[in-house]
Amino acid sequence: MTNPPVERFLGLDALGSVLHAFVLRVPGLDVRTDREVALQRLEDAHEIARRNFGTRQFRIAEQVHGNSAAVVTVESAPRSAHVDALLTRDPDVVLGIYVADCCAVYLVDPKKRAIGLVHSGRKGTALNIVGAAVQKMTTEFDANPADLVAQLSPCIRPPYYEVDFAGEIVRNLKRSGVGRVFDSGENTAMDPEKFYSYRMEKGKTGRMLALLALK
Description:
Blueprint: E1 6-7, H1 10-13, E2 18-23, H2 35-51, E3 57-61, E4 69-71, E5 79-80, E6 85-88, E7 93-99, E8 103-109, E9 114-120, H3 122-126, H4 129-141, E10 149-152, H5 165-175, E11 180-183, E12 208-214
Parallel strand pairs: 3-5, 3-7, 4-6, 10-11
Antiparallel strand pairs: 1-2, 2-12, 6-9, 7-12, 8-9, 8-10
């Protein structure tokens, strides 16, 4: 299999302190099935994308649409239960979040060399999962929210969805004191050739993969 299509974000590239990627729809792969089977079919492509992060250990969240965050290291389990955000200062870890209309929010503290990756859909946004992640970065890593850089991935937006949760994520980040907030502005429901969309494909689809690691 060839390299899957990947998107990167200028706001994160400019930092120079992290590696990141947003793995897009894999052309020609049939993922018109349930989530777990779709992820199995996507594993080869996602593994190729992860190789760009070297030998770092891959860590994911259970993604329960809640507002809990976990700090992970190479000593942590591969998947953290009951959480929607992962935080680390371990350069030997690559964080991963799967999305198909929900937003993956990248958090970087260049001063403390700390990172976070957050799964925030309609429910998690209403529960302010990004605010919980920022707060945990301050308590666990002594981060100053003003030093943080946040990047929103592509996600579903009006008029294809009745709630503008991306706008609310941005407001929640700013209310938490995050210094710089970037939004891709892309709508996953608008481009079925580029993105997976749970809403537009009625739940039978694949997942994009957000990846983030410290250099």
